[in-house]
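Q: Got a minute? One more chain.
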Amino acid sequence: MQSFLQMKLLQQSSNVKLINLTTLMKTSALLLALPISILANFSLRASADSTASIVLSTKCQGGYNINIWRNYTSGELLYRATNPNGNLSLGKGTTKATEGVRVYKFRNGIYEYWVWDGTLDNPQSGTLEVYKKNRILMKQACRKS
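A: Always. Here it is, folded:
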């Protein structure tokens, strides 16, 4: 009878040790994962910049943030936009100086996105225009950021 009680006490103490070890492992994993995820988040942003240089960065009405990039090796123009409705990434852009203002154009199916770099009145402002089948859908005022 005494050995049975000793065995039960020994089993309970090993269960407590096992629970403590499990808790310790979970806590350690969490403490290790947190700084790794923070570092990974910052390094991913930096790696996106390593293949292209920013040409134009604008903030437009309606919450649109537009970035135009140029790929270092190919020279390809890239369009990156974030807005409340989602994100859009396009490539194969063209650029042209028109009336003293540069315009960047990108196509996505039947849609065209035009980003004007400045205006004749104010080089720090600009415009985002969206066309569908050559008809204007949206025009937003922008400012360089």
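A: The two ends are 80 Å apart (CA to CA).
Q: Perfect, thanks.
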